[in-house]
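Now for our target.
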Amino acid sequence: MRLLLDSHTLIWAADEPAKVSAPAMSLMTNAANELLISAVTIWEIAIKVGKGRLPPSLPYRLWMDKAVSDLGLKVLPITVADAEQQVGLPFHHRDPFDRMLAAQALVQAIPLVSADPIFDAYSVNRIWS
């Protein structure tokens, strides 16, 4: 199964794995599953680090490279189809990063690993508890 990680899931899995729910962690550590992070998540974390709102445990590039390697992540690019889906989403949530994750999860038919219930408003298959 392919799994798309929300930004907080990525951060917690890399730095504070005890914060990830047991069901989510079980799926994430199953070698049969493919873990994905969106290009938008890489950008979101970089913006927050640059603004000083998110202090990673290492400098940004080192942290991101280590997280990708340690968790065996693949980067999911943003496609025109993903952007088109995002355009048509209702404004349950105004965060552009989360809206793109919802769009990608819907277009790609990938479950989203996230503690954030806002994704339920978009009928995204959300995995957490």
Summary: The chain has one domain: 2-127.
